[in-house]
Amino acid sequence: MATAAQWLEGARPRTLPNAIAPVIAGTGAAGFLGEAVWWKALLALVVSLSLILGVNFANDYSDGIRGTDDDRVGPLRLVGSGLASPAAVKRAAFACFGVGGVAGVVLSLTSAPWLILVGLGCVAGAWFYTGGKKPYGYLGFGEIAVFVFFGLVAVLGTEFVQAGRIDASGVLAACAVGSYSSAVLVANNLRDIPTDRESGKITLAVRLGDSRTRVLFSVLVAVPTVLGLALAAVATPWALLSLASAPLAVRAALPVSRGGQGPALIPALAQTGLAMLVWSIGAAIGLFLGA
User: Is 45 within the bounds of a domain?
Assistant: First the structure.
């Protein structure tokens, strides 16, 4: 029987920046338009946090019953370790999706009812990442999905429910957050190439191989700095505050560029998540100041 601490670890709290950063960035974009609505931002945060916790538990369940998690280097896996039953972890996943669904329906009904369909697509994307007969995460499409759901959809959705529209600043912020979020998954999958290959999980990292995956990671963590400069050009010079994330991006890239393997790559995930948060906070502050 898993303890509360083990359930918390199994929820993978280190992935939470992937949920928090898009809402901060999207709220900053709404603030630049003079349309920030704080209660809607908080509801968007509930949706985002619920979805990422749900996808974490769903992945734990699906990978666990497939045996993919039998030999892992990373965080605790509840099903793979035998600490929790598959049924219990599956219930936790759908409980999280339920909380996010309720918050999402409220946001949709007070903004645009068609957003309910977007929410359903997000839940389906979360489940079928590693669930179902042909999970797309096992086919190399995980990074694209992360860019779309935790970059474009999360940032632009947050901006839209507050401002009723999206603009260039929101698009640039969404691409920056999506790049960082995808980089987190690339680092994770780089670490797991040996075990994923053995278990038949053909991630993008497995397809590209070790060296090209490292190049991809370096590109992804560099893109937000370029987009920060673009944001300063098209919106406000205050957006240069987002560049405070650049040193963290460099620190994230070091263990990857130096050929780190297994546990040596774990700091890259943490530094990338922190860089994403700092970029989003800096950009949001800058957009509010430049409004």
Answer: yes
Query: What is d(CA 17, CA 22) in angstroms, rounded to the nearest whole number?
Result: 8
Report how far residue 47's alpha carbon sits from residue 100's, in angstroms, rounded to the nearest whole number: 4
Distance between CA 163 and CA 20 in Å, rounded? 19
- 235-260 pLDDT, tens per residue? 999 999 999 999 999 999 999 998 88
Domain count for the chain, please give it.
Answer: 1
CB 33 within 8 A of CB 163: yes
Token pair of 188, please? 């994770």
Q: The domain containing residue 23 runs over which residues?
A: 16-290
Tell me the average pLDDT of the chain: 90
Q: Report the pLDDT value the prediction gives residue 69, as an integer from 0 to 100.
A: 57
Cα separation, 236 vs 108, in Å, equals: 30
Residues 6+ apart with CB under 8 A from 230: 172
| Residues 2, 7: Cα–Cα separation, whole Å | 6
Q: Tell me: the pLDDT tens digits for 3-28?
A: 888 888 888 888 899 999 999 999 99
